[in-house]
Design goal:
The complex is a heterodimer of chains A (about 280) and B (about 180). Chain A is mainly alpha-helical. Chain A has two domains: about 5-200, no CATH class; about 205-270, Alpha-Beta Plaits (2-Layer Sandwich), CATH 3.30.70. Chain A has helices spanning about 5-25, 45-55, 60-80, 80-85, 90-100, 110-130, 135, 140-150, 155-175, 180-185, 185-195, 220-225, 250-255; strands spanning about 30, 35-40, 40-45, 205-210, 260-265. Chain B is α+β, with helices and mostly antiparallel strands and about 180 residues long. Chain B has helices spanning about 15-20, 30, 65-70, 100, 110-115, 140-145, and strands spanning about 40, 50-55, 90, 120-125, 130, 150-155. Chain B is about 15% helix and about 10% strand. In chain B, the strands form three sheets. In chain B, strands 1-2 form a two-stranded antiparallel sheet. The chains are: A mainly alpha (about 280), B alpha+beta (about 180).
């Protein structure tokens, strides 16, 4: 346990606690859930929920569009920090994963394809026949609605409705030892990941950088073993921003070996000087 | 029959088919409501997680805090005049109301408690309550009626409850 790890866990737990007690706290500055959130004057919105509104052919209010834009802009520069630092489902999933012994990793090959298919099908089903499947499989939003439902005395049915699917998925993750939802299903991660992935190499942004010269591991690198999503950060551009949740576990693991991995905020490649 | 009607939505809600497209189920209208009138239905269905008002449990007190809280525009954020709310229309059942059924009890609870007093409920001949077109559908009369004689039919639903007294024109000037 390092200071960095403790900081990240503290933020995750704090976010979960804030949402857990938000309806009773009486804070007017923070309102809503992870579907759409208002913090002071700044709106945040789930880009997938916004996309599903747009896909029906109706343009939502500026506040929702701006909220989705802000969320995507954060992902663009900082990567999928939402998944690694904020998402309550991610916290539970990481905890369950931490209790598991490492096994042979599942292939990541079709993860993006699967996720995209799920996202498109959900958005289309909503647009065509108003089936609210996205409400069911948006785990961060659904989990953050549970305290609101308890507060307005909705009854025990709300636990089944909002909490059952995440709970069953956590059970499946506990059995398989893999973070199945975050890797293969989560519709939110698609848009956040795509936005993060679009960051050009020349622009500043939060990155994990790998320096091949300092890397000492041969087989079974510590960074890959540390990654709960089974990514390999050993590329010149660091781990794939599409899938990386910026949790920093690989950097921590590498610190005990060659210190080849480090955080950086500067452009990953310097602008090429034009040679005469 | 009422199970097939669209649900009663919070004030300022768009027409049902537009509302279900726009609402992203964020719950901001739910938490801003000081009376806990707005609830998120939890069952699996088309209305899952989108806000409704059940006037039998808690009616809308027309404080008008929820329309500006909606980030999506599913509730009209510019709506602040409570007389312009169109959540639904209340109907009074003549076979149940004390005054119509002449049970010997003179009851004016719906008339007394109506937030649009003298406009949405008027007393014909000073006795029998009549709903008018000024009714906004807040459901307070449903909540307070001791004999469950009042039903609110959500806006855009074309159904009239049985034994319902006819709706009178609004007593406000310039409206009919």
């Amino acid at each position: 346990m390092t200071r960095f790890h403790i900081l990240r866990r503290t933020i995750q737990i704090l976010v979960a606690l804030v949402f857990l007690f938000l309806p009773w706290l009486g804070i007017t500055q923070i309102a809503g859930s992870l579907f759409a959130l208002q913090i002071g004057p700044i709106p945040f919105a789930d880009p997938v929920a916004t996309l599903s509104v747009v896909a029906t052919g109706t343009l939502p209010n500026v506040r929702l569009l701006a909220g989705a834009g802000i969320t995507l802009l954060i992902a663009f520069f900082l990567g999928r920090v939402f998944c690694g630092w904020i998402c309550p489902y991610g916290l539970f999933s990481e905890w369950i994963h931490a209790f598991h012994t490492r096994k042979r990793p599942l292939s990541f090959a079709h993860a993006l394809f699967t996720k995209c298919v799920i996202l498109v099908v959900c958005v289309q089903l909503f647009a065509l026949c108003a089936l609210p499947i996205l409400g069911l499989c948006s785990y961060p939003g659904a989990l953050s609605l549970i305290p609101i439902a308890i507060w307005e005395e909705a009854g025990a049915a709300i636990f089944l409705s909002l909490g059952l699917a995440p709970f069953l998925t956590l059970c499946a993750e506990a059995i398989s030892g893999e973070r199945l939802w975050c890797r293969f299903v989560c519709p939110q991660s698609v848009l956040l990941g795509l936005s993060a992935w679009l960051l050009p190499k020349q622009s500043p942004g939060l990155r994990i950088r790998w320096q091949a010269k300092q890397c000492t591991c041969k087989e079974n690198p510590a960074c890959v073993a540390a990654c709960s999503l089974r990514l390999s950060p050993r590329h010149s551009t660091g781990p794939n921003r599409l899938h990386c949740i910026q949790c920093g576990e690989c950097v921590l693991a590498c610190a005990k070996h060659g210190k080849a991995l480090s955080w950086s905020l500067t452009p990953s490649t310097k602008a090429k000087k034009t040679c005469p | 029959m009422q199970a097939f009607l669209p649900p009663l939505r919070p004030p300022g809600a768009l027409a049902e088919k537009d509302f279900i497209k726009r609402c992203v189920r964020c719950g901001q209208c739910v938490t801003i409501c000081p009376h806990k009138s707005i609830i998120l239905p939890s069952f699996l269905g088309r209305h899952r997680g989108q806000p409704i008002i059940d006037p039998h449990k808690k009616p809308c007190y027309l404080c008008m805090l929820c329309p500006p809280s909606c980030p999506t525009g599913a509730l009209d954020p510019t709506l602040s005049d409570l007389t312009r709310v169109r959540m639904g229309q209340a109907y009074i059942a003549k076979d149940r109301c004390h005054n119509y059924a002449q049970t010997g009890i003179m009851c004016m609870t719906c008339y007394d408690r109506c937030p649009l007093r003298g406009q949405a409920v008027v007393l014909a001949m000073g006795l029998n309550p009549h709903m008018t077109t000024a009714c906004v559908g807040c459901g307070i009369c449903v909540y307070v009626c001791p004999v469950a004689a009042v039903t609110v039919v959500p806006a855009h639903a074309s159904w009239i409850p049985p034994f319902a007294e006819q709706i009178k024109p609004s007593p406000r000037k310039g409206e009919g």
